[in-house]
Amino acid sequence: MDELSVHISEPTAEELSAIEMEFGISAQQATPDNEVFAPLDPEKVYHSSDMLTLETEEGTKTMKVGVWVFTDPVRLHKLIVREKTLHVDEIEVLNPLVSKLRRADPDYYKRFMGLKLVVDYPGYGTGIMARIPFETDPVGFYKWWRKGKHEDKVYLNLPNQIKLFQKVSMMDKKVMLKKDLDILR
Questions:
Q1: Phi, psi values for residue 60, rounded to 5°
Q2: Structural domain of residue 120, as residue ranges?
Q3: Structural domain contains residue 132
Q4: Is the N end or the C end of the chain the one with fewer CB atoms within 10 Å?
């Protein structure tokens, strides 16, 4: 199964109505009577009301970008961020997309955000971007993240894990777990 098409589902009438309210657009899809084909144009900056044709498990579908945000936010995000083939208006499409992404696929959202994710970290009254304690208090962050079992709250890719382990190893090696010390060897 194509990884990009896993989250696609046909929007219901209620969902289309919600899209119309959220984006202020008509959420009509192309029907066989008024077949529209709008292939991805890598030079164009898309807005929520622009039509876009993508391949799905059910075949080729053409919907407005605002509808794609609602029906398949992960796929759209990957086209924007990873493949860099889709360029969208930041305020009109990207901000609602990231918001929808957080609710639609929390794990993907955490992996994408990484250290930019806002977390509840001890010593701060409100949420703080994970990068701040990661950089300013590596030993405390390590204890909170690894030993405090908060690995599910902040995703650290391997380069960031190694960076953290190196800093903690230099500052206070005895707090580190053996498995993390082994990574540095």
A1: -75, 135
A2: 114-184
A3: yes
A4: C
